[in-house]
Amino acid sequence: MGLKLAGVVAGILTGLGLACSMGQPVQTATPPRFQVRTVVSGLNRPWGLAFLPDGDLLVTERPGRLSRIPRTGGDPQPISGVPPVVAQGQGGLLDVVLHPQFEQNRWVYLSLAGGQPGQAGTQVVRGQLQGNQLVNVQTIVDMPLKTGSGQHFGSRLAFDAQGRLYVGTGDRGQPQRAQDVADHAGKVLRVNEDGSIPADNPMPPGGRPEVYAWGLRNIQGMAVHPQTGQIWVHEHGPRGGDEINIIQAGANYGWPLVSFGVEYSGEPVGQGLTHLPGITPPIWHWTPSIAPSGMAFYTGDVFPQWRGSLLVGALAGQHLARLELNGDQVVREERLLQGSVGRIRDVRQSPEGFIYLLTDSDNGQVLRLEPERP
Q: What is the distance between the alpha carbons of residues 72 and 349, in angstroms, rounded to a whole number?
């Protein structure tokens, strides 16, 4: 089936009453008008999205399915060869990215909850895409300490310009693991394309060599800054304190020693501190929480007014946040699609400059934002 119209959105809705670390949301003048088109629906908890060179989409579904979706819409075509996943709680099949030289080597990278029910951890696998099959599947990152928790697997993936792979994980519902550099949980890991260790990793004393940064609660957004090449991530806080952080080698981002949020019980996190010496602070936070998921820098020409913005999906907030930047500072925030499409799980820019979204439900959708036609 072809693309079908889901709705027309006229302008941007600005969030109200949101306390942020660097300022308040502000609406700018003459926002572009756009419409939302449904590319495909009927997906079961879609989680990650990547664009193939021919324009087709690869989409993960959390229960364990990877599909190719034709660029013009139509029935998803299942990709065989995906390893089993532990689809418990927040776990399952998570992110998908292509190798930077995919057209030459055909490598597809997946993050997932692996192991077995009751003993699961975040893993990264890669396989070569041949037709609609993954072959030569290899596990290149495997969280050593596996538990029965269904919480906080992360996990987003991104390649830098040198071809090194960054892996964001969650604390697995055990906050102190985020401060243990001998553990994968609550970290940004950095490996080479085959899972080997880059020679210039920070190598924290007593830590695992793939640990690049730590003290992160549950990373569900990761993107490479188009000018600086730096890795930006966002993470879920508890009640409040969702953070955007710029990742630096060997940096500690503080969870659970500091937080702008509070525990779900209402008690303070740790000693109730927001800053400590030696802790790298976020550049932005959302309090109350929006439950961010998915993140992309917009560099396209389809929406020129948004060029240079950071786009972030919101699960609990059910909107798309557009953050205007001045260098590494957020100067204002706008909210699009507030309450109109549901929980947004992923945000991606297509090679043509359109904005694609995944909605998180058992009837999940791939949506595309397009300029409104006259």
A: 16
Question: 109 with 99: CB under 8 angstroms?
Answer: yes
Biggest CA pair distance of the chain: 61
313 - beta bridge partners? 293, 320
ω into residue 155 within 30 of 0, thus cis?
yes
Confidence class for position 32, pLDDT limits 50, 70, 90? confident
Determine which one of 99, 152, 285, 319 is catalytic. Answer: 152
What's at 356, amino acid-wise? Y
Tell me, yes or no, if 285 is annotated catalytic. no
3-state secondary structure 11-72: CCECCCCCEECCCCCCCCCCCCCEEEEEEEEEECCEEEEEECCCCCEEEEECCCEEEEECCC
Angle at 154 between CA 120 and CA 223, to 5 degrees: 150
Helix (H) or strand (E) holding 336: strand 329-336
pLDDT digits (tens, 9 = 90+) for 215-255: 999 999 999 999 999 999 999 999 999 999 999 999 999 99
Q: Residue 360 carries which side chain, given as an amino acid letter?
A: D
Q: What tokens were used for 213? A: 């940064």
Spatial distance between the Cα atoms of 167 and 209, rounded to a whole number of angstroms: 13
**Rounded to whole angstroms, how far apart are CA atoms 195 and 138?**
10
